């Protein structure tokens, strides 16, 4: 579940004038598949170009925090019993 990528990455769909801010474990993959090809940009740097950002609709999908936590915990437990038992040695 840990993602080591630059903060502020987003998908930009120029044709539809949409900016999708990805939040891990919040339908990011599903939205990406549904929308098709995008350009990856950094939303934080785009804010320095307000004329471009103001012409686009920006959105993100946010899940219930408790549901997201439970989902992540189950994913770790399944991974620990299946292919990565060393994960149980990590401190959470």
Topology overview:
Elements: E1 9-13, E2 18-21, H1 28-35, E3 39-42, H2 43-46, H3 50-53, E4 57-59, H4 65-81
Parallel strand pairs: 2-4
Antiparallel strand pairs: 1-2, 1-3
Describe this structure in words.
This protein has 92 residues and is of the alpha+beta class. It is 36% helix and 17% strand. It has four helices and four strands; from the N terminus they run E-E-H-E-H-H-E-H. It has helices at residues 28-35, 43-46, 50-53, 65-81; strands spanning 9-13, 18-21, 39-42, 57-59. The protein has a four-stranded mixed sheet. Strand 1 and strand 2 form a beta hairpin.
Sheet with most strands: strand arrangement: 3-1-2-4
Low-pLDDT windows of residues: none
Strand content: 15-25%
Overall geometry: elongated
Structure class: alpha+beta
Give me the number of helical elements.
Answer: 4
What portion of residues is helical?
A: 25-40%
User: Would you tell me the overall average pLDDT?
Assistant: 79
Distance between the termini: 12 Å
Task: Give a brief description.
By secondary structure, the chain is an alpha+beta fold. It has helices at 28-35, 43-46, 50-53, 65-81; strands at 9-13, 18-21, 39-42, 57-59. Strands 3-1-2-4 form a four-stranded mixed beta sheet.
């Amino acid at each position: 579940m840990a993602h080591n990528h630059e903060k502020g990455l987003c998908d930009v769909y120029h044709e539809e004038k949409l900016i999708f801010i990805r939040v891990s474990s919040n339908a990011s993959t599903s939205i990406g598949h549904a929308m098709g090809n995008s350009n990856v940009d950094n939303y934080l740097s785009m804010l320095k170009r307000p004329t471009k950002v103001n012409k686009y609709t920006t959105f993100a999908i946010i899940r219930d925090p408790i549901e997201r936590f439970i989902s992540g915990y189950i994913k770790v437990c399944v991974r620990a019993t299946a292919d990565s038992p060393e994960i149980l040695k990590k401190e959470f």
